[in-house]
Amino acid sequence: MEVIEVSNFKKMFGHKVIHRDVSFVVNSGECLGLLGGSGAGKSVILRSLIGLEKPDSGQIHINGLEVTKLPESDLRDIRKQVAYVFQNGALFDSLSVFDNVAYPLREHTKLKETAIKERVLSILHSFNLHGTDTLLPSELSGGMQKRVGLARAIVLEPKVILYDEPTAGLDPANTIKIQNLILQLKSTGVSSILVTHDMDTALRVCDRIAFLENGIVDDLGLVSDLKKDPAEILNLFVRGQNE
């Protein structure tokens, strides 16, 4: 079953063409890796999925609903179902870890504070962040900030998660922690898109990989097939790094 369908997506900024004709689908419970060089427009697609950008033409369907022409009031409902994990965590500097993670619950639900506390502390514990609830983001390592950002993104139990370079700048140990969290969420049936330059992470957590190049999806294949062809993996890595 298709959870996300992007069809004939076109986007320009001024006279610069970012996407000429991008089409792909994400199936239920699947993680699609979205690769491409710097400036290929990977994050533009993610932002478009939650209405932060509008395509010049084309369609985006999420669970059968065409979202590109929805008013802001309806996009709020979409954003409850589709979580965006920002590259830098995008935490509120002045709020504690607890209040950062609790923020979506306070904004979008009518839960009482006792229920919010239980939910937030449970997620922090499951992400191995127990004891951090009173800390400010500035008191956390980069890896911990990314995990808090992921905890905040999934606190509303979204059906879709969009990961924007979740392992960028992390050391190998923290990269593995993020990979394991993505796999953990995937095991619950969450559908996701992973934007990354990290081929190791893409190969470990994704089911398929789409490669953005020259404004189109130039290549798309199963990770299981790529793993049988090391030369193709190297080719994708080099294309993504050198563009």
Q: Tell the overall outline.
A: globular
Stated plainly, the CATH topology of the largest domain is called Rossmann fold
Summed over residues and divided by their number, the pLDDT gives a mean of 88
| Strand order of the biggest β-sheet | 6-7-8-3-9-10
What does this structure look like?
- The protein is an alpha/beta fold and 243 residues long.
- It has two domains: 1-40 and 56-63 and 162-176 and 193-243, P-loop containing nucleotide triphosphate hydrolases (Rossmann fold, 3-Layer(aba) Sandwich), CATH 3.40.50.300; 90-158, no CATH class.
- The chain has helices at residues 42-49, 72-81, 97-108, 113-126, 142-154, 172-186, 199-205, 223-226, 230-242, and strands spanning 2-13, 16-27, 31-36, 57-62, 65-66, 82-85, 160-164, 191-195, 208-213, 216-222.
- The strands form two sheets. It has a six-stranded mixed sheet with strand order 6-7-8-3-9-10, with helices on both faces.
- α6 (172-186) links the parallel β7 (160-164) and β8.
- α3 (97-108) crosses α4 (113-126) and α3 (97-108) packs parallel to α5 (142-154).
- The mean pLDDT is 88.
